[in-house]
User: What shape does this take?
Amino acid sequence: MLNYLDLDADLTEEERMIRDTAREFVQEEVCPDIAEHYIEGTFPTDIIPEMGELGFYGPNLEGYGMLGIGEKAYGLLMAELEACDSGLRSMASVQGALVMYPIHAYGSEEQKEEWLPKLAAGEAVGCFGLTEPNHGSNPGGMETHAEKDGDEYVLNGSKTWITNSPISDVAVVWARDRSEDDDPIRGFIVETDRDGVSTNKIDEKLSLRASITGEIALSDVRIPEENRLPGVEGLKGPLSCLTQARYGIAWGVIGAAKDSFETALEYTSEREQFGQPIAGFQLQQGKLAEMATQISLAELLAHRLADLKERGDLTPQQVSMAKRNNVRMARDQSRIAREMLGGNGITADYSPMRHMANMETVYTYEGTHDIHSLILGQDLTGIPAFE
Ligand code: TGC
Ligand code: FAD
Assistant: This one.
């Protein structure tokens, strides 16, 4: 894989080991069939426990069966998963950063003991319910609510575009708690086999096809009050989880871009037109030079983010900058790689078009590109321009 600035030379033994383990796993176990899954619109569910055994869920968290690895090693892992397909990184992002993280950070001891080992092992699958049909970029407008009834909560509302909801055992659902003044947003652990929960699948996606997406409809769903996450209140609860997942995306998309670059380099070195490999033409070399440069710059940004996160200095706005830049980079570069493959580039035999289509989702979820522009704009000027 592209290593133009020799960042690999500075990796620790642990970081190399995690990267190489992930690379071997995806190359041998997942990549051979991923195009077929993409075409069928399925996720290879048999690898869910295997990914757990390898420690791919929430590995940067401590205790309860998690590995507690460093943030750079975690980022490298995300890049290896996404080099195969964004659906694979989404699986790990949602399970680790959006389900295990809030339970780890805000859950009671009982909630942690019940859920974290199962989720880490891939024995249970979780999903994260924030987006609603009428509230995507502005989750603060959410309508889903919880009312207290004795020692239970009754939940009503609907969430949409939820990664893995149709195959989940448990959902972390964000809802307005009507039992308190000002209806604060709170997190609730909702087992998906409870009466009143339905998780219809969203079909006919043209992007992120090797990932299951669905709704969460909640109709008078009763949960015990112990299922409320006690440690956080307000929008900062879900937004802090997004910071974790966006960090993983900023790293992950580098994998998709590198895979696109390597495919284009190999293809253009072998494909001959006008009596010579097309990699020998200046126009193609210009594209390769630009790809290598943009990928390397994005990688430098990700490495800097890891250092800041490791020492506890990373701000959500810095994560927004990296998510915004690196996803746009991967979107642009996978499209250029696609074009360098000519007609073959539009087939499922080659990865760039699949990565390119996936990037439309990645550009949109976890805060759209526009929303990250506005987050940066507010940080730079002090003036919010959301409304
Ligand atoms: P605002 O007033 O700015 O903030 C409310 C409170 O939250 C704090 N905060 C954050 N904390 C941690 N991390 C962040 N990133 C944070 N952003 C804000 C903030 O300090 C404040 O705290 P406090 O103590 O003062 O109460 O809130 P706002 O309503 O103005 O919203 C701002 C905005 C628009 C940036 C936010 O709503 C936003 O990020 N919108 C985008 C929505 C989004 O990203 N949705 C993603 C859904 S999940 C998903 O897509 C999963 S895909 C999974 C996969 O398959 O990989
Ligand atoms: P909207 O908010 O309606 O935005 C539409 C357009 O308007 C965008 O271009 C946006 O940038 C622009 N826009 C919005 N507000 C402004 C503004 N103030 N200024 C300028 N432009 C603006 N959500 C979850 O909770 N959990 C998940 O697991 C999850 N998984 C997903 C998986 C997939 C495949 C997809 C596609 C989405 C997923 N999402 C998930 C939802 C995702 O986070 C939302 O789609 C995203 O936040 C955007 O919301 P929206 O689709 O409602 O678009």
Notes: DSSP finds ten helices and nine strands in the chain. The radius of gyration is 21 Å. The CA atoms of residues 103 and 112 lie 6 Å apart.
